[in-house]
């Protein structure tokens, strides 16, 4: 099976599993798990924040961040396609009575400051209180430009708003822009990081921020059922991931670039390729036959909501060569023998 649907499909390797097996553990709800504590300290140091907190998922880390920044009746501004607006089941509204104010992102994944400015509500009894700007890095694979990170951060200070970075794939952005994590995370109040995507840990995300913020988030984590006990076996995987799987993301980026070139040569319309993600546009009539063909060849691709291919630690170059061969064979057997 070659699975290009997402980098979430990555499984722990032998060395990571070994670390998990031998991890010292304790009851993390009491703060007693040495492995969880070590992971949190490591994340705080890497991000340059005072503290960090380990979560079962990125969705819960983002939710706890929103609940910590905003009160009932407050509002956060986020991209129309942002994960914590569109793909988290409306959790902020359902569980926090927090109103989202989406704005349309620019082509490069940034949010236009003029639109944010217009979306910020005056202090008036008619309006929700705007509290927070939430940005995503990477956004659909795009690493946000450094000058813009500084610009939106300065803007948030002027507007007295908090700034959250959904950094599920922040290390892809760090590698792509040649920055240490701190070079990106300095421009925010809080940052969520996913360990179970390109970094290949089986479970877990981290939320980083000030002591006060993390204390509040810890309460929300407990309330939403995310307080785990001997979570050290998972944290050990996270520590291994941070120690070994960051720099190698460059290989995933190279592979995605190679895949984009190969597909373009086959006449496939590549819409965009950034970091480890590529989006392609297929003629409507080709979607189902291609999906069936790839299924038969034990290759998985994401076809909805857009056709997307994501490279990761389990899709080495040889695997991608197989994907290209299967694609060529698919095109050959079409009635007109072309990409259409
Ligand atoms: C994957 C992802 C998350 C969190 O997802 P979980 O599956 O809940 O860990 C958050 N934001 C973005 C941008 C993501 O890609």
From TrEMBL:
Pfam families: Beta_elim_lyase
InterPro entries in UniProt: ArAA_b-elim_lyase/Thr_aldolase, Low_specificity_L-TA-like, PyrdxlP-dep_Trfase, PyrdxlP-dep_Trfase_major, PyrdxlP-dep_Trfase_small
Cofactor(s) of this protein: pyridoxal 5'-phosphate
Keywords assigned by UniProt, alphabetized: Lyase, Pyridoxal phosphate
EC number(s) reported in the record: 4.1.2.48
Domain of life from the UniProt record: Bacteria
Domain Aromatic amino acid beta-eliminating lyase/threonine aldolase: 3-281
GO MF terms held by the record: lyase activity
Subunit annotation: Homotetramer.
Family recorded in the similarity comment: Belongs to the threonine aldolase family.
Full protein name: Low-specificity L-threonine aldolase
């Amino acid at each position: 099976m070659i699975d290009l649907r997402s980098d979430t499909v990555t499984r722990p390797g032998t060395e990571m599993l070994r670390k998990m097996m031998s991890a010292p553990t304790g009851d993390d709800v009491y703060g007693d798990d040495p492995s969880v504590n070590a992971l949190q300290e490591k994340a705080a140091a890497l991000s340059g924040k005072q503290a960090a907190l380990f979560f079962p998922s990125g969705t819960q880390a983002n939710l706890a961040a929103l609940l910590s920044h905003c009160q009932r009746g407050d509002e956060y501004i986020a991209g129309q396609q942002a994960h914590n607006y569109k793909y988290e089941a409306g959790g902020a509204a359902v569980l926090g009575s927090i109103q989202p104010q989406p704005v349309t992102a620019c082509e490069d994944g940034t949010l236009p400051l003029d639109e944010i400015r217009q979306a910020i509500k005056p202090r008036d009894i008619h309006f929700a209180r705007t509290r927070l700007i939430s940005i995503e890095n990477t956004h659909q694979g795009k690493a946000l430009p450094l000058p813009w990170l500084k610009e939106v951060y300065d803007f948030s200070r002027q507007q007295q708003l908090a700034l959250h970075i959904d950094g599920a794939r922040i290390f892809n952005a760090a590698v792509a822009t040649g920055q240490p994590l701190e070079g990106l995370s300095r421009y925010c109040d809080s940052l969520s990081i996913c360990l179970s995507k390109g970094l290949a840990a089986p479970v877990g995300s981290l939320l980083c921020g000030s002591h006060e913020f993390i204390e509040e988030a810890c309460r929300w984590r407990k309330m939403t059922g995310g307080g785990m006990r001997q979570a050290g076996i998972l944290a050990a995987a996270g520590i291994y991931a941070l120690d070994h799987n960051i720099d190698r993301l460059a290989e995933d980026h190279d592979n995605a670039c190679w895949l984009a070139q190969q597909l373009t040569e086959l006449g496939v319309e590549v819409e965009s390729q950034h970091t480890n993600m590529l989006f392609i546009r297929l003629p409507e009539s080709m979607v189902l036959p291609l999906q069936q063909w790839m299924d038969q060849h034990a290759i998985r691709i994401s076809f909805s909501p857009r056709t997307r291919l994501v490279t990761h630690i389990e899709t080495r170059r040889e695997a991608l060569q197989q994907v290209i061969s299967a694609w060529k064979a698919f095109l050959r057997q079409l009635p007109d023998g072309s990409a259409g």
